[in-house]
Hints:
Elements: E1 37-44, H1 59-65, E2 71-73, H2 83-100, E3 106-112, E4 117-119, H3 123-128, H4 137-153, E5 161-166, E6 170-171, E7 175-176, H5 179-183, E8 194-203, H6 204-222, H7 227-232, H8 245-254, E9 259-261, E10 268-270, E11 274-275, E12 293-294, H9 302-309, E13 310-313, E14 316-319, E15 326-328, H10 334-347, H11 349-358, H12 361-382
Parallel strand pairs: 1-2, 1-3, 5-9, 10-15
Antiparallel strand pairs: 3-8, 4-15, 5-8, 6-7, 11-12, 13-14
Helix pairs in contact: 2-6, 10-11
Amino acid sequence: MQQVAKRPFQPWKSPVAALESGEADPALHFDAGHPKWSGVEVLTCVSGGRFVKVMDFPVFHIFRASTPLPVHNVCENHEWDGMHMRLRFYQEFLEKYLASSAGGRQRLFIVSDGMDVIFNDLRQLLDADPSLKDLRPVEAVAQIIIQRYEALVGDSESLEVVFSSERLCGWGGGHICSEEDDAHYPQGSTDSKYLNAGGYIGPASALVRIITWVLDLAAEVKGGAFPDLRRKTTAEDAIAGETDQLFFKMYFWEHRESVTLDYHQSIFGNFVEVENVACRDGWRPRCANQPCCTVSDSFKRFHDVFYGNYVIQGCALWRRNHLPITWHGNGAGKWLWLLSLEELSRSCPFLANLTVQRYPVQPILDLFDQFDTARADRQNAMR
């Protein structure tokens, strides 16, 4: 890992700069200077995001403030009504963008979960690249993302969308891939060969095409068609009892000419960790290599798994000298994501300040006051 001189910490985005509604960042006009893509923006759906906390961390505020890119939360003022609600809002937002864009160069959009994702601090990369270090952070970060996106789609005229990948084949509601599901996947270049719909990137037109396909198929399934699909996309522990990730997997299986996966996690890092040993409790997850078992959700091994794979430097989280654009803590990776937030809160100024600002301090102060009152009462009783 190349060591570079540290620049003084300056927040890339003020957490208090969001519009009062919380729906989106203030309008930010910037140009990444790329001949094809004018920049990168982020799309997410978190109902009441500005109020959401996980383990006392203001996770949406952290997500939003961790990137200089504009973040659009299309669900801020809408009550959550299931997975397909967010897709309808994504579809509406992207269609409006296409209707208002005047042609020419387009934006790339990262569509991401917003409650268990954090953007990485890329300043070490910016400082090491003379062509980037003097740009505004939003422009420099957009250029890095565009470079990595183009490296993944290559010279293909048909590849347009890159989905995040993970090491475990399954989806919401505790569903694990069958052998038949697994067979639909091409042989990946790494063990992270399975699609995860928690993050994907592409131009608005391609994203609308995919989202519309998923919504249309989901409507058919909900209407009674394909009973087996209805069973496999039911998530009893979710509001509205539905999950959309299998539909995205199916789109990938049927449209490999236009969709690829981020096999090396250059854009979308994922905290799910596995080892090629059978699970002691008899669970048999589906991984690229068998036997396998998840280790990122093993309480007894958290220390070895986390500190054996990850290094935190300021606000940057590296995995084996690898620095993706984002980190996602879904499913069996949730605990490592929380450990990361804990560690980052000790070394990353913006995350520490956000956590303190949003922490419910008053109950603790009230508790201390009660201790003081009880101590004074005991002292008075002894006189």
